[in-house]
Write the structure tokens for this entry.
Amino acid sequence: MFIGHFALGLGAKRAAPAVSLGTLFLACQLADLLWPTFLLLGIEVVKVQPGDTAVTPLTFVSYPYSHSLVALLIWGVVLGAAYVLIRRSRVAAGVVIGALVLSHWILDVLTHRPDMPVTIGGSARLGLDLWDSLPATVAIELLLFALGVGVYARFTEARDRRGKFGFWGLVGFLAAVYFVNLFGPPPPSATAVAWGAQALWLLVVWGYWVDRHRQVRTRDA
């Protein structure tokens, strides 16, 4: 899943209005932000095998430190607590951030074949294999994305032109990247996957930039 994760980040602005969209993106995509670095370090393993599923050419061999249930519970507590301590915010904001980190595992279990690790060292794997059907995958992700975009757009408003066009530019870019990943050529190697996935950090930065130019609508605050 790709834009489905971002959908939850966008929608979570309603639950944590004081938290920047960039931080919400960081939380909902933390697993995929850590994953490429772990690949480059040789800690986790992915293979490029076109046709392995209807949606992605990637076979996820091992990724317990970035994607297991236990690891994401730990990462969620760490990120949520760090936010509360550094920003001196309310605990509720940290809870939302931690829940977003964990949500990545839940959505990936929905889409992946049974390759989602439960523990860091154990053999248990889960997955409902939504990726077996391209139409069903696209329908569910686009629905989630539309709902997330709708919540963020209704709950916030642009302070200036940057807030308006920057936000809709982000929405359009995410949709474009999603369809390119679905219908574009497979990556040439696992190393290329890892380096390309580092670009996710730019979307986090974009989220911070957009949120600085938007504000919570007064009537909903």
DSSP finds ten helices and six strands in the chain.
